[in-house]
């Protein structure tokens, strides 16, 4: 027998489903500043989690301006504060081509209350993306607190020390449910 997952459907009713129903939430969907990277960088968005959740997907709005497409690693790091030691808890690669949203879906990554997360990707020279000078986007499991923009030819390793967020956000969405 399956115990139904019951949660709010909109603001006035509760519905029950056989499994949790993830929802998409956007960060910086209104960002109109499109720019092209001039060097290879690690880019990401810091999230402060105040509730337990499960990430089922996340995508950044990207573009590979040169002809063809490239393989890009997408990652999630977990830490105990906005700066300091972080551990990579998820990594996958995806092909980025024409202007659109790119990243993993169909994943299951646990998010813990009281932790900080960086959702990011390793951008190649010439990759296009959108940003905005706003950091406080609220999600069902927490809120965004800024961006990471670190020039590096090599993708950050599984255990890495980050300096902390800057005052930008990149256009992206996160799909999750509370746990």
Walk me through this protein's architecture.
The model has no long low-confidence stretch (mean pLDDT 91). Strands 3, 4, 6, 9, 10, 12, 16 and 17 form an 8-stranded antiparallel sheet that branches. This protein has 179 residues and is mainly β. The chain has one domain: Jelly Rolls (Sandwich), CATH 2.60.120. Helix content is 0%, strand content 61%.
Question: What can be said about this structure in brief?
Answer:
0% of the residues lie in helices and 61% in strands. The protein is built from no helices and 17 strands.
What keywords describe this structure?
0% helix, mainly beta, Jelly Rolls, eight-stranded antiparallel beta sheet
Give the arrangement of secondary structure elements:
Blueprint: E1 5-9, E2 13-17, E3 23-27, E4 33-36, E5 41-49, E6 53-63, E7 70-79, E8 84-96, E9 100-102, E10 105-111, E11 116-123, E12 128-132, E13 138-139, E14 142-151, E15 159-162, E16 169-170, E17 172-178
Antiparallel strand pairs: 1-2, 3-17, 4-12, 5-11, 5-14, 6-9, 6-10, 6-12, 6-17, 7-8, 7-11, 8-15, 12-16, 13-14
CATH topology: Jelly Rolls
Shape: globular
Number of helices: 0
| Overall pLDDT score | 91
Number of strands: 17
N-to-C CA distance: 20 Å
Largest sheet: 8 strands, antiparallel
